[in-house]
Amino acid sequence: MTQPLLSVNHLSHLYAPGKGFQDVSFELWPGEVLGIVGESGSGKTTLLNAISARLVPQHGTITYQARDLYAMSEAERRRLLRTEWGVVHQHPLDGLRRQVSAGGNIGERLMATGARHYGDIRARAEQWLSDVEIPPSRIDDLPTTFSGGMQQRLQIARNLVTRPKLVFMDEPTGGLDVSVQARLLDLLRGLVVEMNLAVVMVTHDLGVARLLANRLLVMKQGQVVESGLTDRVLDDPHHPYTQLLVSSVLQN
Ligand SMILES: Nc1ncnc2c1ncn2[C@@H]1O[C@H](COP(=O)(O)OP(=O)(O)OP(=O)(O)O)[C@@H](O)[C@H]1O
């Protein structure tokens, strides 16, 4: 491919001075994982919402496969979110349907891409449950009966079943126990490579960023203060704020 999957150009959205993000630009290529890191309140989630078509930004443009995202109709953006894109929320129940079984949560996304045959849908849902290490015997159970780690794995299965090109993740391992987190990270890393997924991931955890992201944007008070390859940014941070972030992790 000779063009980026996603181009973000001079994007801004401010709720109030210093609250939101300002003048953010970057490109994302197929198969690339971009981590957005920075302290709480630096505008990471607001930025993620704007680039994933869930918040109309005040300024700037986003192009997805050379098409202006906000020149598309609302219906087209919604279709993208149901098919070629995925969104993994920090709190899994925000990204799952509580009243629908685990299998139904996965099958629903398949149906959005045209699958109609009940037996096939169920078989693929079972396969995905097992891929994300949920016993397929739980296929008819409601997600609310699952542990937090299982819910997060179900949310990942629901998003990836349509083989999306681009997935947005907001603190995908936040709020989970350390051991559950480590297994989930391994699983995610494997899936990202295997499916050649492009990912934009918000995290305040530099360990998660190091494991998953190829490139990082470091945000402070709504502005990108540094960007580059993950190893370069974390091993040789140039901006004093990045240096502070990295050293505060080392001291912990
Ligand atoms: N809907 C909103 N209306 C007004 N202000 C908002 C709104 N959403 C977020 N903010 C403010 O914008 C700033 C950026 O918030 P945002 O959630 O994007 O930061 P963040 O870096 O993701 O932080 P965290 O890691 O704590 O989630 C914060 O000061 C927040 O209070």
Automatic annotation (TrEMBL):
GO terms of molecular function: lyase activity
Q: Which PANTHER family match?
A: PHOSPHONATES UTILIZATION ATP-BINDING PROTEIN PHNK-RELATED
> Where does the ABC transporter domain start and stop, copy by copy?
6-246
Q: Which UniProt keywords apply?
A: ATP-binding, Lyase, Nucleotide-binding, Transport
Does the keyword Nucleus feature in the UniProt annotation?
no
NCBIfam families recorded: CP_lyasePhnK (TIGR02323)
Record's keyword annotation contains ATP-binding: yes
Q: Which Pfam family would be a valid example here?
A: ABC_tran
Matching SMART domains = AAA
Source species, domain of life: Bacteria
What is the name of this protein?
A: Phosphonate C-P lyase system protein PhnK
